[in-house]
Specification:
The chain has one domain: Mitochondrial biogenesis AIM24 (Double-stranded beta-helix). Helix content is 17%, strand content 44%. The chain has five helices and 19 strands. Strand 1 and strand 2 (12-17) form a beta hairpin. The chain starts with a strand and ends with a helix.
């Protein structure tokens, strides 16, 4: 198996499969592929993440009940495209080291990867399309590829070292990093801060990858260019939530 990320602003991931090799991804992630690649829908992976219960957990975590398995009896290639400007990163998942990934961040992986829901919390109807803040967990054994939006900043947190991060900037972190939801300090910051009241507290040890592009920020930038009739009589947060909901809906 050979993987190559092509492009810069909106890259694609092209994976060359040798005869007999296979990949799994969330439903609907395929961009294009060579003839001879076989597609099947499955609820299980080689890592043991199977069954309806596991599928429901994946669905809540941003994926779907079924995953698509791509197999190459005679060899071939498969390509996945990013949904937003950013990058695609490879990671190695082992029984000793899993990863927590933002909703929609997992692109694909080898058969041993087990995706599931790690966390979900409502942050208000106008945020993230009303779906709340969702994180996926990748366990098992194998290679996975993760999409991160915008530019990526990496931190190595020492034992007990913490970062406070806006939920939209969470890209990925190692399972050794502890996380919890908190709010910005001070009543004036909560009311007039303009950046939301929720933050994610990340505490080491472990690596953290943060993404510069957030969906709420993207929706806010698009809002002035929406048709006037759509924006009139609608709260800014609801408009942004609707835009984000549409973007998220297109990622499944």
């Amino acid at each position: 198996m050979k993987a190559e990320v092509k492009g810069s602003t909106l890259p694609v991931l092209e994976i060359q499969l040798d005869p007999g090799e296979s990949l799994v991804s969330n439903h609907g992630e395929l961009a294009w592929m060579s003839p001879g690649i076989q597609m099947t829908q499955t609820t299980s992976t080689g890592g043991g993440g199977g069954g309806l219960k596991a599928g429901l957990k994946r669905a809540v975590g941003g994926g779907g009940i079924f995953m698509t398995q791509f197999s190459a009896p005679q060899g071939g290639f498969i390509t996945f495209a990013t949904h937003l400007p950013g990058t695609i990163m490879p990671i190695e998942v082992t029984p000793q080291m899993g990863y927590i990934v933002h909703k929609g961040g997992w692109v694909c992986g080898t058969d041993g990867i087990v995706p599931s829901m790690a966390f979900q919390q409502s942050l208000g109807a106008g945020i993230f399309g009303g779906e709340g803040f969702v994180l996926q967990k990748l366990d098992g054994q194998g290679q996975a590829w993760i999409e991160l939006a915008g530019e990526v900043t990496n931190y190595q947190l020492a034992q007990g070292q913490s970062l406070l991060v806006h939920p939209g900037h969470i890209g990925m972190f190692e399972q050794t990093v502890q996380f919890s939801m908190t709010t910005v300090p001070g009543i004036k910051n909560k009311i007039f801060g303009g950046a939301g009241i929720f933050l994610v507290n990340l505490t080491g040890p472990g690596q953290v990858w943060l993404q510069s592009l957030t969906l709420p920020g993207l929706a806010g930038a698009i809002e002035p260019y929406l048709p006037q009739q759509q924006a009139s009589g609608t709260a800014g947060g609801a408009v942004a939530g609707g835009v984000i909901g549409g973007l998220l809906g297109g990622r499944r």
